[in-house]
Amino acid sequence: MIIELRKKSQITLPKEIVKELNLSEGDKLQINVNDGKIVLKQVAIYPVEYIEKLEKELKLLKNKK
User: Fold this and answer.
1) Domain count along the chain
2) Residue 50 maps to a domain
3) What CA–CA distance (Å, rounded) separates 41 from 32?
4) Domain range for 24
5) Residue 24: which CATH number?
6) In this structure, what DSSP letter does residue 62 have?
7) Long-range contacts of range 18-25, CB-CB < 8 Å, 24 or more positions apart?
8) Could you give the C-alpha distances from 58 to 44, 46, 47, in angstroms and in order?
9) Which end of the chain has fewer CB within 10 Å, C or N?
10) Beta bridge pairs of residue 43
11) What's the pLDDT at 28?
12) How far apart are the first and last CA of the chain?
C-alpha cells in the first residue's frame, strides 16, 4: 500500500488499516524510527493521579504476599 506525504508532513492512514486495528478518531499513536522503518503503536494516556493510585494499590498487594 502506498500513501502520500502531504503538506505539513501529514499522512492519512488507509481505511482498511484503521478498521483492522480498530482505531477511532482521537486515539493516540506513538511514532518511532526503528532500523530505518517508521513504527506506529497505539497508546493509552492516563492522568498522573490515576497512575499514582494504581502504584499505591500495587504496593499494597505486594506487601500482602
Assistant:
1) 1
2) yes
3) 9
4) 7-64
5) 2.10.260.10
6) H
7) none
8) 19, 17, 17
9) C
10) 28
11) 95
12) 51
